[in-house]
Write a structure and sequence with these properties.
- The protein is of the alpha/beta class.
- The chain has 3 domains: about 160 residues, Beta Polymerase, domain 2 (2-Layer Sandwich), CATH 3.30.460; about 140 residues, Rossmann fold (3-Layer(aba) Sandwich), CATH 3.40.50.720; about 90 residues, no CATH class.
- Helices cover about 55% and strands about 15% of the residues.
- It has 18 helices and 10 strands.
- Helix 5 crosses helix 14, helix 6 packs antiparallel against helix 7 and helix 8 crosses helix 9.
- The longest helix is centred in the last third of the chain and has 31 residues.
- The radius of gyration is 29 Å and the shape is elongated.
- The two termini are about 25 Å apart.
Length: about 425
């Protein structure tokens, strides 16, 4: 079995490609289960954020597993393999493990050290697990990824001074408008990213906040928390003409802000309307960026801010990478040790079968002993078996962790299990 990561991210694909293979958060569990149902895929977790869509799978064969993931994406999203393939990376084994640990730790994020990704990894794993798409390998992998992320955040200062996507969006808006004091904000959407962005804006001096959502009842709680007002979606055009900044972050699968609406709202403006679209798929039609009086930003436009933040924290990044490398080595050693589990199980089963046979032969000669004395003899026999097995089992695990395949094969031959898997299944199943 191979652990694979097949993905596309801000490092390999522009937002117009990433949005075509993005999964709705509410569908991650179901989609992971559907992926697990593909031939050759035994476990699956789908991770989808504004910066990446990745599939982590356990497959019988790396090439077939990669093909199964891509075929699933193409079928699910209605895209062709030719369109998608140039932007995709495929990692296996230790490379896939290391990648997930880096992702969970914020090292592969556009905003290095950002904190949202750990929660997104945890939620993706939880959704897949609830849908029974995971198994023992991915359960162990994702638990260790989350634990590694905690270590990185506890043992380094990678979070200090780091920017999230919302924080970077605010910084760019400040640069475009020459300051944020008293600026009015309209937020389209009522999710976590939308709220974080507007909170950053308010803390930076922005004034009135308007929250717009298709469901007014969903807009009101956010408006109350932000000290703003909630409005219906059909009022978007009216309020858009009265604000300086529009932040969009909905879960819509297609653009909901069209050029005609924005063109009407910016007529007669003296200053530009700054639109920050942090949704993937994008909420704002790309043509809006060509309108006079509009500055449209999407998540890929925040790269310059993120690079500056990265340069300021090189020492912390190096320490975080060291932790990731150590945890990757530890996890991969555990993975390699699994290769000898059937051999160890079969060896123990054979030894216990021999001990049981000898016990039955000796039992008639022990009738003169009390029940307690017979139990003492039986316990002694089991103790001898355990002590004899202890050394070989420890050594088998050690050579498996070092990936000394030659020695593992030699042990199989020496112990009479060279016809794996039939011999191992027979012995272990006794």
């Amino acid at each position: 079995m191979d652990i694979l990561c097949v993905g596309t991210s801000h490092r390999t694909a522009p937002v117009e490609v990433r949005e075509r293979v993005a999964f709705l958060e509410s569908r991650l569990g179901v989609a992971s289960a559907l992926l697990r149902g593909r031939d050759g895929v035994h476990e699956a977790v789908l991770l989808s954020t504004c910066n990446r869509t990745e599939a982590y799978v356990v497959a019988e064969d790396a090439s077939a597993g990669t093909h199964a993931v891509l075929a699933f994406w193409c079928d699910y999203h209605g895209v062709s393999l030719q369109e998608l393939e140039p932007y995709v990376y495929a990692l296996r084994g230790a490379d896939a493990v290391r990648h997930l640990f880096r992702v969970a730790s914020g090292l592969d994020s556009m905003m290095v050290g950002e904190t949202q990704i750990m929660g997104q990894v945890r939620e993706a794993f939880g959704a897949a697990r609830a849908s029974r798409a995971t198994g023992p390998l991915l359960d162990a992998l994702f638990r260790q990824a989350i634990a590694t992320s905690r270590q990185v955040r506890q043992r380094t200062g990678i979070e200090r001074g780091s920017l999230s996507v919302p924080g970077a969006a605010v910084e760019v808006a400040r640069q475009l408008l020459g300051g944020l004091g008293g600026r009015r904000v309209l937020v389209l959407g009522a999710g976590e990213m939308a709220e974080l962005t507007v909170r950053h804006l308010v803390e930076s001096g922005c004034g009135g906040v308007v929250v717009c959502n298709r469901t007014l009842e969903h807009a009101r709680p956010l408006a109350e928390r932000l000290g703003g007002v909630a409005v219906r979606f059909d009022e978007l055009g009216r309020y858009l003409s009265e604000v300086d900044i529009l932040v969009t972050s909905t879960a819509a699968p297609h653009p909901v802000v069209e050029p005609e609406l924005v063109a009407q709202a910016v007529q007669g403006r003296r200053e530009p309307l700054v639109i920050v679209d942090i949704a993937v798929p994008r909420d704002v039609h790309p043509a809006v960026g060509g309108l006079p009086g509009v500055r449209l930003l999407n998540v890929d436009d925040l790269q310059a801010v993120s690079e500056a933040a990265r340069q300021a924290r090189q020492a912390e990044i190096a320490q975080a990478e060291k932790i990731v490398a150590e945890e990757t080595d530890r996890f991969c050693a555990w993975l390699r040790s699994l290769k000898v589990v059937p051999l160890i199980t079969a060896l123990r089963a054979r030894a216990e079968a021999v001990a049981e046979e000898e016990w039955r032969r000796a039992l008639p000669r022990l009738q003169g002993l009390t029940e307690q004395e017979r139990e003492t003899v039986r316990a002694l026999l089991q103790s001898v078996v355990n002590r004899l097995l202890h050394g070989p089992i420890v050594r088998l695990k050690e050579i498996a962790r070092r990936e000394d395949t030659v020695y593992v094969e030699a042990a199989r031959t020496l112990l009479g299990f060279e016809d794996e898997p039939a011999a191992l299944e027979s012995e272990a199943g006794r």
